Amino acid sequence: AAGALPEEERCSVERADASLTFPRFLQRFAFSRPVIIRGATDNAVFRALCTREKLLAAFGERPVRLSTANTYSYRKVDVPFQEYVEHLLRPQDPAALGSDTLYFFGDNNFTEWGPLFQQYVPPPFLIPGTKGAYSFGIAGSGSGVPFHWHGPGYSEVIFGRKVRAEPSGEGRSRKSSPPDSPVFQRWFLYPPDKAPHFHPNETTLAWLRHTYPKLPPEERPLECTIRPGEVLYFPDRWWHATLNLDTSVFISTFLG
């Protein structure tokens, strides 16, 4: 079974280190394939501000806008951040539809959250003619964004991990609260000309349990674990989905 393989053997996304130059990034990755860049930035200061205790102290009474975890239509719900963390930030119900799953990602108030984002060190490379826009989020174990696509961007997990879940639903019973130690992240990606098989109102966890095990090798996505100190770059119009095994604090930089 694929789940029995070590993480590195399951990784099919190329890695590069801080020696990657901008011309090389443009030539090899920017318009053609994803890449994980290791050691290009240091976000220790930002990470220290993203513990459960500090986030609640700074933003607990402020409203946040939650989105549903489906692909094409999004219901929005506004709640105080503390209510989200203490009552809604819980493990994903494997039977729930995406339209019934709420999580906090994007829709950030840059006036209120701006001082936090100013401490984030963004990925090193912009595509010519673009600017970076941040989307910050916190989501419970087993949650994630189902397959979708948009413009190019980067993603980095600050706390928690996004990994490929096994069909048994490993990790669903873990307590869901912003953790205070960094672990890993996992993504699933398909190129623009290879649309994945999925239902737009199916959560990533449900897709992993029901569809992924039946895929022949040639139809499986690119996938990889992202470690602390690494960022994942994905090109324009690449399909991608995520899954949080642990409760995760994460930030994306969208280029547009």
UniProtKB/TrEMBL annotation:
Domain of life: Eukaryota
UniProt xrefs under InterPro entries: Cupin_8 (IPR041667), JmjC_dom (IPR003347), JMJD6_ArgDemeth/LysHydrox (IPR050910)
Domain JmjC residue range list: 99-256
Any one GO molecular-function label of the UniProt entry: cis-regulatory region sequence-specific DNA binding
Any GO CC annotation of this UniProt entry: nucleus
Name of protein: JMJD8 protein
Species of provenance: Eudromia elegans
